[in-house]
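Q: Structure tokens for this one, please.
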Amino acid sequence: MRHGDAHRKFNMPTSQRRALFSNLTNALLTHEQITITLTRAKELRTFADNMITYAKKGDLNSRRLAAAFLRDNEVVSKLFSTLAERYKDRNGGYTRVLKAGFRYGDCAPMAVIELVDRDVNAKGAKDLARVAAEKAAAEAAAAEQTAETAEK
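A: Here is the predicted structure, written as tokens:
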């Protein structure tokens, strides 16, 4: 009998596997496109699609289930506002897996998993904003230091 054999085990304990897919789902929903191994991408599809289905339901219980799995309030709010609105007319199939060759080090098959109808500007937007803020802070500190040396 094959009861409970629905998902791949990836040679890791259940808690590690759950944390892995929680983090990968967070990354996918944040950036809307990530590159991982092919088998992980195929398995990640189910988790990402389930989260978007929760968002489309939109009730409190669905929000709590999504928050329990994702553990990130920013991602949950994006999921229930932006992504739920984007996929309200689509009946499943929210993700796409594209094969992307082989990894250099161990020749593992790689894939790009992305949300269908994704926002192209979402990938790396958080990092770009952080880098811009750091650059502005550094320039302000340099200007302040220059003003101090000019006073002396």
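A few notes: The first helix runs from residue 14 to 31. Residues 1-117 form a domain with the 50s Ribosomal Protein L17; Chain: A, fold (CATH 3.90.1030.10).
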